[in-house]
Amino acid sequence: MKRYKIAIVSDSYLPRVGGLEVHMHDLAHELTLRGHEAHVICVTPGGPDREIFPVHRIPAPRLPRIGCIRNGQSIPVLEELLRSGGYDVVHSHCIWSPLGHAAAYLARKLQLPSVFTLHSVLRGVGGVALRALDRLYPWSAQPTILTGVSSFVADELRAVTGRSDVQILLNATRTEEWRLPRREEQRVVSVLRFTKRKRPMDLVQMVPQVLSQLPRDKWPIFTLVGDGPERPRVEREVARLGIGAHVEFTGVLSRPQVQKLLARSAVFALPSYLEALPIAILEARSAGLPVVARTPNGVAEIIEHGEQGYLARDTGEFVKYLVRLLASPELRARMSAKAQSELERFTWARSIERHVQIYAQATERFGARLPEADRYAQAA
User: Which end of the chain has the lower number of beta carbons within 10 A, N or C?
Assistant: First the structure.
């Protein structure tokens, strides 16, 4: 089996906390565990990085809040890293990452196979903006293999680019790490970044409606895990609604802390519409939590409506499904059992197998033998 040396590139990375950043970290970690050599390249400040893989943090001016590069100052540094690194494949993440696009362009210049993965829903303005970008800079015409993290996202990318060869690279998690003994409390938990796109305000505004439809002995605590620019506004809304006794904010928690919290929660809720394939829901399912989320988006890749949870078309349905689950321990138990079954395709073992297949296809598409391939190959 071939062993690849991969440059995993995007503007954003840990310690910024989000699905993209966590995915990049875990992908590099899991590739390394399986004998590949993965390097993360980003412009997010941080460190020292005590990982089993290298992290290259390019010093560069960044746009506030967004965190992506502000100008081309980092491009020569990126080019030198790719030129001297002996990489077999360049894997860019996030179609909105200028550094990722630069890496894909430089890969072609340096005759390196490349892959580009979309982690976001393009609905509406996103699709229009991406088509405009493609007209100015025809990135979709490059020999890069394009992938999406769910069928929903891949379909959107096919529509925007006109390419029928967009493939799927599902997000993954270490499902076994989330299977802690359950000690269920009457608690609705949500793990998300506090941004308008994630719609935490929607969730807290549902709280009075949920409480009004349940007897007092079934009133839950709503626990919101995470941080971000919207948090102060959401906290003010909680105070305005007078629901402070029913909502708690934990800030960012470590992975073990989130695992313990999920193990003692009753329902997981994610109020955002624009979800590609949320890792938070993979983790919730692995922990055995019924999920209430929005539709249509990539969540349908993880949750079958009425089986591991519910997919709501609007706020009214979202409230109805929360109330239904909170009122019925029997329903939660049935959905909990289904949530923890048939998760194999979201495991890292399956995901890395698929990544390696895509890297091999990228090499074949580029029409050249991988640089130093023999150095990273061994008998299966």
Answer: C
